[in-house]
TrEMBL record:
Record has Protein biosynthesis as a keyword: yes
Protein name as catalogued: Tryptophan--tRNA ligase
Protein family: Belongs to the class-I aminoacyl-tRNA synthetase family.
Motif ('KMSKS' region): 197-201
Organism: Roseovarius mucosus
Gene Ontology molecular function, alphabetical: ATP binding; tryptophan-tRNA ligase activity
GO cellular component, one term: cytosol
Phylogenetic placement of the source organism: Bacteria, Pseudomonadati, Pseudomonadota, Alphaproteobacteria, Rhodobacterales
Swiss-Prot/TrEMBL GO biological process terms: tryptophanyl-tRNA aminoacylation
UniProt superkingdom: Bacteria
Annotated binding of ATP, by residue: Q11, P12, S13, G19, N20, G148, E149, D150, V188, K197, M198, S199, K200, S201
EC number(s) per entry: 6.1.1.2
Membrane-spanning residues: none
Subunit structure, interactors included: Homodimer.
InterPro entries per UniProt: aa-tRNA-synth_I_CS, aa-tRNA-synth_Ic, Rossmann-like_a/b/a_fold, Trp-tRNA-ligase, Trp-tRNA-ligase_bac-type, Trp-tRNA_synthetase
Length: 332
C-alpha cells in the first residue's frame, strides 16, 4: 500500500480568478490540514506547450505562487514549487513517452481542442503533454490528484501509464492515482451568462472576479452580474433552469462554507436587489484580503523565489529516489 499523497498543478498563465480560488486554491489550502502530504506545482513546462512571452511567464509564475500563499497555503506544510526547477519531471516524462502508446495520445480530446484545425502546426510538446502530467504525478508516487473535469481524461491516461509500467516490468512500483473531482458547487460559472465556466480566457473582464480585483471592482462586478428578473426561489429545487441565479447562490455557498440549502434558508425569496449586496459584501470580505496579500507578496519577488527554491529542494528529495528506482527497474 502507498502512503496517501496529494499532487496537483496549475499552469502559470495569468488572470487568477474566483473559479481558480473556489475550485482549486482554497481546496488545496484546506487539504494541507488533513494530515496528508500535499505537493502543489506551478507547471510552467505545461504552459510552454503554447507560446508564452518570457516576461509574462516569469511574472505569472510568481503571481500564482503569491495566489497560493494568499489563499492560505502554508509553504512550510505543503511543498509549493515550480515544475521546471525539478528536472526529474522531464526525465520521468521521457520514460513515460516510451510507455504511452501513440493511439492513447491521439484519443486525448484536449489536444484536439487546443490544437484546433491546424494540428500539424501544434507543438510536439502539446501532443506529449499528458505524459509529462503523468510524470508530475507519478514521480512523487502521488495517490490523490485534485483535478477539474477537463483533466479527467489525462488522469485516466496517467493511470494507464502506471498500470502498463507495472505490468511490463512485473512490479507494483507506481500507485494508480485516484482523481479528486471538484463538486458542482465549486464549478464557478461566468457572471455574464451562468452557463459557461468562469475562465481566464473570457474576453470580458466583467465575466470573472480576478483575485487581483480591489473591493470596489468586486462589488461592481457582482452588482452587474446577469440575472433573471424573478426573486430567488424559496428552496434550492426552484433554482432548476435558472443558471445565473444558481451560480450566484453556489458562489455564496462556497465563499461562506455553507450548503446551498443553508443559503436558501437565509436568502430564499429575496429579490436580487437584496441578495446581490449580501453576496458582494461576502465576496469582498473573502477575496479583497487575498488581493491585498498577493500585492504585498509581489513587492518582494526574491522572497517568493526563495520559497519556490526551498519547495523545489524538498520536492527533489522525493522525486530523485523514485526516478533512480525507475531507471533501475528498467535496467539503466
Ligand atoms: P489549467 O490549464 O492549469 O487547468 P485553469 O485556469 O483552467 O488552468 O485551472 C486551474 C485550476 O482552477 C484547475 O484546478 C481548475 O479545475 C480550476 N478552475 C478553473 N476554472 C474554474 C471554474 N470556473 N470553477 C471552478 N474551478 C475552476
Ligand atoms: Na484547465
Amino acid at each position: 500500500a502507498f502512503t496517501p499523497r496529494v499532487f496537483s498543478g496549475i499552469q502559470p498563465s495569468g488572470n487568477l480568478h474566483l473559479g481558480n480560488y473556489l475550485g482549486a486554491l482554497k481546496r488545496f489550502a484546506e487539504a494541507q490540514n488533513k494530515g496528508i502530504q500535499t505537493l502543489y506545482c506551478m507547471v510552467d513546462l505545461h504552459a510552454i506547450t503554447v507560446w508564452q512571452n518570457p516576461a509574462d511567464l516569469a511574472r505569472a509564475t510568481r503571481e500564482l505562487a503569491a495566489g497560493f500563499i494568499a489563499s492560505g497555503l502554508d509553504p512550510a506544510k505543503s511543498i509549493l514549487f515550480n515544475q521546471s526547477q525539478v528536472a526529474e519531471h522531464t526525465q520521468m516524462a521521457w520514460v513515460f513517452n516510451c510507455v504511452a502508446r501513440m493511439g492513447w495520445m491521439q484519443r486525448m480530446t484536449q489536444f484536439k481542442d487546443k490544437a484546433g484545425k491546424n494540428a500539424q502546426n501544434a507543438s510536439l510538446g502539446l501532443f506529449a503533454y499528458p505524459a509529462l502530467m503523468a510524470a508530475d504525478i507519478l514521480t512523487y508516487h502521488a495517490t490523490h490528484v485534485p483535478v477539474g473535469e477537463d483533466q479527467k481524461q489525462h488522469l485516466e491516461l496517467t493511470r494507464d501509464i502506471a498500470i502498463k509500467f507495472n505490468h511490463d516490468y512485473g512490479v507494483e512500483f507506481f500507485p494508480i492515482p485516484e482523481p479528486v473531482i471538484e463538486g458542482a458547487a465549486t464549478r464557478v460559472m461566468s457572471l455574464r451568462d451562468g452557463s459557461n465556466k468562469m475562465s481566464k480566457s473570457d474576453p470580458s473582464d466583467m465575466s470573472r472576479i480576478n483575485l487581483t480585483d480591489d473591493a470596489d471592482t468586486i462589488a461592481k462586478k457582482i452588482r452587474k452580474a446577469k440575472t433573471d428578473p424573478e426573486p430567488l426561489p424559496s428552496e434550492a429545487a426552484g433554482l432548476e433552469g435558472r443558471p445565473e441565479a444558481r451560480n450566484l447562490v453556489n458562489i455564496y455557498a462556497a465563499l461562506a462554507d455553507m450548503t446551498v440549502d443553508q443559503v436558501m434558508a437565509e436568502a430564499g425569496g429575496k429579490p436580487f436587489s437584496e441578495f446581490k449586496p449580501m453576496l458582494a459584501d461576502l465576496a469582498v470580505d473573502r477575496i479583497a484580503p487575498i488581493s491585498t496579500e498577493m500585492a504585498r507578496l509581489m513587492q518582494d519577488l526574491s522572497e517568493i523565489d526563495r520559497i519556490l527554491a526551498d519547495g523545489a529542494a524538498r520536492a527533489r528529495t522525493i522525486a530523485a529516489p523514485i526516478l533512480r528506482q525507475t531507471y533501475e527497474i528498467m535496467g539503466m
